[in-house]
Amino acid sequence: MSKIIIATANKGKAKEFEKIFAKFNIEVATLADFPEIGEIEETGTTFAENAALKAETVASVLNQTVIADDSGLIVDALDGAPGVYSARYAGVAHDDAKNNEKLLKNLEGFEPDKRTARFHCTLAVATPSEKTSFYTGEVEGVIAEQLCGTNGFGYDPLFFLPDFGLTMAEIPAEKKNEISHRANAIKQLEKDLVEVVEKVTKK
């Protein structure tokens, strides 16, 4: 089985990547397998900049092809916020409860048709001495007025999918891994996946 390194320490993301890549018979390794690398500070102002920063840093350290993602929630009524700051929207990184609480507060009084939003994902594929490649995916939705569902992570309990009549946290994980922004970005990557895997196996 081939193995791809994903430059993330986020357990929720890691689990999604594992399930999505499993259908290609590809095993996933994450930063949890390389504790010596440590945390990579996301200093970019766009999803692409942050994804490239993570992928290129880890690729340089390990001297092999690495995939990184940067993803987040874009809310139209908030001028695109929380955007690249999605994980630390409330000030503390990866505090889902506080992030969701702040989002609900900032959208108080907004009617459903003004609560449109989308999850965005940019994947960066970095190989030492080669130009980094990018792939993007999105999924459209509406921010619910209260938390619903226990699946997923992050803003999933607030991200309502009109086509399903459920939030992202209420649909089965298998369905999420078919329709999510991350899955859609990986679908864009699919056409180049054989080449990416070949680069990995040459190392």
TrEMBL record:
Cofactor(s) listed: Mg(2+)
Keyword Metal-binding attached: yes
UniProt cofactor note: Binds 1 Mg(2+) ion per subunit.
Residues annotated to bind Mg(2+): E41, D70
Catalytic activity: ITP + H2O = IMP + diphosphate + H(+); dITP + H2O = dIMP + diphosphate + H(+); XTP + H2O = XMP + diphosphate + H(+)
GO BP annotations, alphabetical order: nucleotide metabolic process; purine nucleoside triphosphate catabolic process
GO molecular function terms listed in the Swiss-Prot or TrEMBL record: dITP diphosphatase activity; ITP diphosphatase activity; metal ion binding; nucleotide binding; ribonucleoside triphosphate phosphatase activity; XTP diphosphatase activity
Catalytic residues (UniProt): D70
Function comment: Pyrophosphatase that catalyzes the hydrolysis of nucleoside triphosphates to their monophosphate derivatives, with a high preference for the non-canonical purine nucleotides XTP (xanthosine triphosphate), dITP (deoxyinosine triphosphate) and ITP. Seems to function as a house-cleaning enzyme that removes non-canonical purine nucleotides from the nucleotide pool, thus preventing their incorporation into DNA/RNA and avoiding chromosomal lesions.
Subunit structure as annotated in this protein's UniProt entry: Homodimer.
Protein's name according to its UniProt entry: dITP/XTP pyrophosphatase
